[in-house]
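tmp note - TTF1 factor
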Amino acid sequence: MDLDTAKQELEEFIPHVRSISDSSIRKMAGRDLVRFKQFKKQGIAVKFGRFSQKENNQIRKNIEEFLLITGIDSAEKLLFTSRYPEDKEAISRLKAEYLFCQKLSEGIPRPWRLIYYRARKMFDPNNYKGRYTKEEKEKLKKYHAMHGNDWKKISEMMSRSNLSVAMKYSEIKSAINYGPWSKEETQKLMHAVEEVIRKRTEMEDGNSSSEKSNRDLLIDREKLYQKLPWTEIEAKVGTRYWRQCKQKWTTVLTNKMTKGQQLYRGTKGLQAKINLIKRLHEMKVEDANEVNWEELSNTIGDVPKAYVQAKFYKLKVSCVPFWRKKTFSEIIDYLFKEKLPELEEKL
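out:
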C-alpha cells in the first residue's frame, strides 16, 4: 500500500494521522489497519488514552498464552529481549514464528505500538523499585551528562525502566520550585499553554500566517485541557515540574470558568460530593477509564474534568478504607452505602 492510501485509510480511525511520521504510518498500515477494520465491523471504535482494567487483563492473558505456546520462560525475556543477549536470537525467532505482534494486540482496539508500550510498562520489574535515593539521583545526573537522552542505556546502568529514568530526570534536571506559584510563573505557564495550543491549531488548519498568529484564538474549550504536551510546557516554564504545571493549569482554568467562586466549600461542597457519588453510582461502570468525566463536571459546576477527577480521588482516599485493594465499582458502592448517608445528614 502506498503512503497516501495508507494515510487516507488510517484517517478514518485516527483523525490526527497526518501529524504522525511517515515511518510510523507505514508500520501502522501493516500492523493495525486490518485489525481496525475488523473492530469497525463489530461496532468497536479505536481507543486512545488510559488503559482500562479490562484491557490490562487482556494484555496479561495475551502475554501468558504466548509464553505458554513458545516456552519462553518470562515476560521480561519476551518484552526486554536485549537484556538477555545469549537468548536473543532464539527469542526473536519464536516471536516471528508465532506472530507475536498479532498475538499481543488480540482483542484490544488500540494501535499496536501503544499496546506494546503498555505491556512493557506492566511487565518491567525495574518499574516498581520505589522512590529514588539521593545517591541514585546523583548517578542519574552523572549518567545523563555522559550519555545525553539515551534512556535505554541509562536505564540499564541504573536497573530502572526507560520511562522511570526519563521522567525522574525531567523532575530533577533543574532547581524546581515547590512553593506557591509566583505571578511571573503563572504568566509563563499561561503563555506556554497559549503557544502550544496556537501551534497545534495552526497545524490542524494548515495555516501559520503571521496575521492568524496575532489574532485572538477562538477554539473549543476541550482543547484547553486535553492532551497538552506537558513536558514541552514544563521546559517553557523552567521552574516547575510538568505535573505541577498540569495541576496549576487546572486551577487556573477552574477559576476562569467559575469566575472565582468556591464551588467545593461549605454546603456547596457537600452537595457537590453527594451529586458526584450519586452520578457515579448511577453509571454502574466497572472501571474508572469508562467514566465520562467531562459529562460529570456539571455535578460540581462548570469545571474541567481534571478538577472532578481530583475531587473524586480525594474523596476515595479520605473516605474508603483500604481503597487500593478495592475495585472501582467496590469503591463506588462503599461511598454510596456508607459515605452518602453521612454527607446527606451533614447537609
